[in-house]
């Protein structure tokens, strides 16, 4: 064997070793990380979370450029907003609504940790603590939170006017005040580049009506998954909402991103709200864990009860940011397997 071929062999082995090292996945934790309520974080913990959100908003998108018209997908943050927009009609008012959003927020949590050096877990917003006085919620704190309401902007009264809305303009304080291109996508299902400020349109009335402990306990008391899920989502009417709509319309009203079915993840509060919906589902599962780790039903497509039910094998996709899973893979948040979720909550709702 000539020197040259020995050298080539050595190069090949080195390359193989190098690629093995690079391809080795980050070791997955087998101990669930613990999600805590926003107001119980210390100020340094709050600021490290908000810095991680700003970081993920500054990293470049990884969405493959298959569709040249998706010019609004610029950042890693946009990757998730875009994923939500594309799947809106198949992830709301369906049986896998909670499972899909569980995976979506867990994907975001992993992005913050793996790509932005965040060392905590995704915080949740326990809105039952604020339902009686929404505007004073610590999540809207201008210094330690996500900023508050926008100035009042009148809308044409009609079916889309969220009762009790008080804002609608760009946020005037907090980390995203004074920035005109926080949001790149929407409104609605539009994904061509459209720079917008972050808007909030708080409705203390709506939050009071649907985010209190009374509504939460009514939901928790449902006896099977189908009815539990229906209670969480409510119906698409401001007169028959649930805790899900309570958070979206309580914060986003008519004009804020949180009130937009498609582009709602553009407001970082989305993930604190959905973490708490997930906590409510886990609270419900824990009341009868053996049965409720496998209890899943409800339409496969938006409110279409004729097409069959979601099941443990219904696929879930969080887009290019994570591998595809099934509903069954996320039923146990503490499973910590080779795929799926690995987190838990510091406290749960009880009946
Ligand atoms: C919960 O309390 C709020 C505020 O008093 C009220 O508007 C709402 O109708 C109540 N919900 C239920 C389900 O009782
Ligand atoms: C979906 O599941 C529900 C509850 O288990 C059941 O009553 C219903 O018949 C199922 N629907 C279809 C279309 O299979
Ligand atoms: C994941 O699922 C989505 C939606 O069904 C699909 O478009 C995508 O190609 C899948 N990705 C992989 C890697 O299989």
TrEMBL record:
In terms of superkingdom, the source organism counts as Eukaryota
Residue stretches making up the Tyrosinase copper-binding domain: 92-109
**Any idea which UniProt keywords this protein has?**
Copper, Metal-binding, Signal
A Pfam family of this chain: Tyrosinase
The reply to whether S-adenosyl-L-methionine figures as a keyword in the UniProt entry is no
- Coiled-coil residues: none
Q: Does the keyword Coiled coil apply?
A: no
Q: What is this protein called?
A: Tyrosinase
Species assigned in the record: Podospora fimiseda
């Amino acid at each position: 064997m000539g020197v040259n071929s020995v050298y080539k062999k050595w190069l090949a082995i080195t390359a193989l070793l190098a690629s093995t090292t690079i391809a080795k996945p980050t070791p997955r934790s087998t101990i669930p990380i613990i999600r805590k309520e926003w107001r119980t974080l210390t100020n340094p913990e709050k600021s490290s979370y908000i810095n991680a959100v700003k970081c993920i908003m500054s990293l470049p998108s990884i969405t493959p450029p298959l569709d040249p018209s998706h010019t609004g997908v610029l950042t890693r943050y946009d990757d998730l907003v875009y994923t939500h927009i594309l799947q809106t009609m198949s992830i709301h008012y369906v049986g896998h609504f909670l499972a899909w959003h569980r995976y979506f927020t867990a994907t975001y949590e992993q992005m913050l940790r793996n790509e932005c050096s965040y060392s905590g877990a995704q915080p949740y917003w326990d809105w039952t603590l604020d339902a009686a006085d929404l505007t004073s919620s610590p999540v809207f704190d201008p210094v330690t939170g996500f900023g508050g309401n926008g100035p009042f902007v009148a809308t044409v009264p009609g079916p889309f006017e969220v009762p009790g809305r008080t804002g609608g303009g760009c946020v005037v304080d907090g980390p995203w005040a004074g920035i005109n291109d926080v949001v790149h996508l929407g409104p609605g299902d539009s994904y061509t580049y459209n720079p917008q400020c972050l808007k909030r349109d708080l409705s203390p009335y709506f939050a009071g009506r649907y985010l209190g402990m009374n509504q939460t306990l009514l939901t928790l008391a449902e006896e099977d998954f189908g009815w539990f899920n229906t209670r969480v989502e409510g119906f698409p009417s401001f007169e028959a909402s649930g805790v899900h709509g309570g958070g979206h319309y309580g914060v986003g009203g008519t004009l804020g991103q949180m009130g937009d079915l498609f582009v709602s993840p553009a407001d970082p509060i989305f993930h604190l709200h959905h973490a708490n919906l997930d906590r409510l589902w886990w609270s419900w599962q824990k009341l009868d864990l053996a049965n409720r780790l496998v209890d899943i039903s409800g339409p496969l497509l938006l409110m279409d009860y004729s097409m069959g039910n979601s099941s443990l094998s219904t696929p879930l996709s969080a887009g290019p940011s994570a591998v595809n899973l099934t509903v069954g893979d996320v039923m146990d948040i503490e499973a910590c397997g080779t795929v799926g979720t690995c987190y838990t909550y510091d406290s749960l709702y009880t009946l």
